[in-house]
């Protein structure tokens, strides 16, 4: 699934494939059957929920403003959005 992330053109599918990859990491921690591994997996599940939902929200905002989700069409996007420019 990591290689599928590299080949994606759409932002939402990129986030979806990376979510599947993260779930694989979480599952590997839970399969250790170690107490700390299970606690770490639970913390990663919570963090993953917040980060993935935030990324989908950001993609929705960008899609509603620019009417596209194709990654190649975002050249120079950081210069046009002053909120994200530091």
From TrEMBL:
InterPro entries named among the record's database cross-references: NADH_UbQ_OxRdtase, ND/Mrp_TM
Main EC class the enzyme belongs to: translocase
Substrates-to-products reaction catalysed: a ubiquinone + NADH + 5 H(+)(in) = a ubiquinol + NAD(+) + 4 H(+)(out)
Keywords: Membrane, Transmembrane, Transmembrane helix, Ubiquinone
Domain NADH:quinone oxidoreductase/Mrp antiporter transmembrane: 3-80
Superkingdom, taxonomy of origin: Eukaryota
Protein family: Belongs to the complex I subunit 4 family.
Keyword Cytoplasm on entry: no
PANTHER family on file: NADH-UBIQUINONE OXIDOREDUCTASE CHAIN 4
GO BP term, example: ATP synthesis coupled electron transport
GO molecular function annotation: NADH dehydrogenase (ubiquinone) activity; NADH dehydrogenase activity; ubiquinone binding
Cited function: Core subunit of the mitochondrial membrane respiratory chain NADH dehydrogenase (Complex I) that is believed to belong to the minimal assembly required for catalysis. Complex I functions in the transfer of electrons from NADH to the respiratory chain. The immediate electron acceptor for the enzyme is believed to be ubiquinone.
Protein name (database record): NADH-ubiquinone oxidoreductase chain 4
Organism: Parasteatoda tepidariorum
Segments traversing the membrane: 35-59
E.C. number: 7.1.1.2
